Amino acid sequence: MTELERTSAAMESRQAWDFDRRLKVMLGRFGIYDLNQTVATLSGGQRKRLAIAIAILDQPDFLILDEPTNHLDIEMIEWLEQYFMQANVTLLMVTHDRYFLDRVCTSIIEMNDGKLYRHAGNYAYFLEKRAQREEVYQTEIDKAGKLMKKELEWMRRQPKARTTKSKSRIDAFYDIKAKASSGKKQAELKLDVKMTRIGGKILELKKVYKSYGDQVLLKGFDYTFKRGERIGILGKNGAGKSTAFKHNNRQ
After folding, report:
1. Residue 249 phi, psi (nearest 5)
2. R_g of the chain, CA atoms, integer Å
3. What does the DSSP 8-state code read for residue 39?
4. Quick check: 248 and 240 in contact, CB under 8 A?
5. Residues 6+ apart with CB under 8 A from 22
6. pTM, rounded to two decimals
7. pLDDT 10s digit of each residue in the chain, 251 long?
C-alpha cells in the first residue's frame, strides 16, 4: 500500500494519468497522427517536430532550443509562439527567425568582438539599443582621435623631465591611442565576375520523371530555369522535399 501511495502521488505530480491523451493532442499539433509509425520512417522535419513535442510534453522548467521554427508550418509556429508566451518555462534558444524572437523573447544576448551584451527586451528593442550603443561608441572614438592628435604633438617634443606626472600622461596617451584605433570600418564586398552569358536560359528540363517506389514526384516535368529566378519548393511537412534533394545530391 505504501508503494502504491508513493507511485500514485508521483503520477499525480507529473499529471501522468492522462498522458496518452495529452501525447496524442501534442503530436497532432505538430502534424503527427500515426502513433504506430516508427521514428526511423519519419522525415527530417517530422523528427524535429517530434523532438519539440516530446520536450514540451515533459513540462520542463528550462528548455534549450536550436532553430525551433525550422520545419514548422505557419500554424505550428503561431501555436508555439502562443505556448511560450504563456508557459512558465525559462527558454534559451538560438534562431534566425526575427519575428519569433520579437514575439517570444524577453531578453537578447549579443556576442560581439569577444564581449557579451544583454538587452532586456525583444529583438526590435535589441536593434534599437545596439544602434544607440554603437552611436555612443563612435562618438567616443571620434573624441579620442582628436585628443590623440593633441597628445601626439606633446609626445613628439619628447619632454626631458620624466616626472611622475609626465609618466602618467604618457600612459594615458597609449590608452587614448588604443581607443581611437578601435573603430572598425565595414569593408564593402565587391565581386568582379568577368563572364557573360548568352541569353537568359540557365537550365532546361524536358520530360523529367522521378519517383520513390510508388510515390511519384515528377511525371513528364518540363521547366526552363532563367537567370535571376528564385524558385521555392512548397509542400506539407513529411511530403519528401528534403529527401528528394538529398537523394539528387548523391546522384
Report:
1. -65, -40
2. 30
3. G
4. no
5. 15, 57
6. 0.53
7. 889 888 888 888 777 778 888 888 889 888 888 888 899 988 888 898 999 999 998 888 999 999 998 888 888 889 999 999 888 899 998 888 888 888 898 998 888 878 888 888 888 888 888 888 888 877 777 777 767 766 666 666 665 555 555 667 666 666 666 666 666 544 443 434 444 445 577 888 889 888 877 878 888 888 888 877 888 877 766 667 777 777 554 44
64 strand-pairing partners: 92
Specify whether the CB–CB gap between 247 and 231 falls below 8 A: no
Identity at 175, one-letter amino acid code: D
Q: 97: which 3 cell numbers? A: 527567425
Can you tell me the distance from the alpha carbon of 211 to that of 233, in angstroms, rounded to the nearest whole number? Answer: 16
Q: Would you state the cell numbers that stand for residue 98, as one nine-digit string?
A: 526575427
Chain position carrying cell 600622461: 169
